């Protein structure tokens, strides 16, 4: 009597081999994530409830660090400046990056070169960017104020030397730096919109503005949502640009939460309080992101 081949052990060996191979690919990245990201975040939430510096033992203080924030004028100044930067940086960067994407989403001669030029500021050294723009914004000999004076502006702004104009200057540079990166995301989104939709709209007599409003914008809805989420997080955690361009000054006119965390932690050795501010910043970003996802889900439903 013939017997059926015993394939079950062989299948088990194949499944085990595939499982081991899969874990061999996942494990190095997971270990790096756990050690360099997950563990520090868990420790951060613990340190936020302690009074700790690198030379002593962490002393549990409960919510003392969070209560301290209510009376900390510098914290509220940093929070206002962060919101100020975010409120203007997001729409300006959205508009600039989408405009660039629309201009460079055409079959033009040398379009790849111009795309590279637009993206180049994003990969340029932030120190070099800060030095060049500080020279451009110089109140005494900067070409920007020289141009404003040539067109009849009697009292041009002091830019980074003025507590009133320093944040607008940082916003301008931040928009210029990041618009090339988000331009690429919008370019990818534009190329997924079927050309037949534009042809049908043009056949129906739609103007270029109507095609943009009724075809392009709806087709970019998911891309715009993704870019907005990234821009929100990036704006709230802005640090390097302000650190090397203005140092938070003049005074505290450009002091933001990320730089305030750096000051309290690494300059004043108050890691407990710095961790508490970090938790607040995380809570703000997390809450706004959740709201964005909820609004986007409601619009799609």
Automatic annotation (TrEMBL):
Regions crossing the membrane: 20-49, 83-104, 116-133, 165-188, 241-261, 273-295
Localization in the cell: Cell membrane
Gene3D superfamilies hit by this protein: MetI-like (1.10.3720.10)
Keywords, sorted A to Z: Cell membrane, Membrane, Transmembrane, Transmembrane helix, Transport
Family matches, as InterPro entries: ABC_transporter_permease (IPR051393), MetI-like (IPR000515), MetI-like_sf (IPR035906)
Family listed: Belongs to the binding-protein-dependent transport system permease family.
UniProt xrefs under PANTHER family: ABC TRANSPORTER PERMEASE PROTEIN (PTHR30193), INNER MEMBRANE ABC TRANSPORTER PERMEASE PROTEIN YCJO (PTHR30193:SF37)
Protein name, entry field: Sugar ABC transporter permease
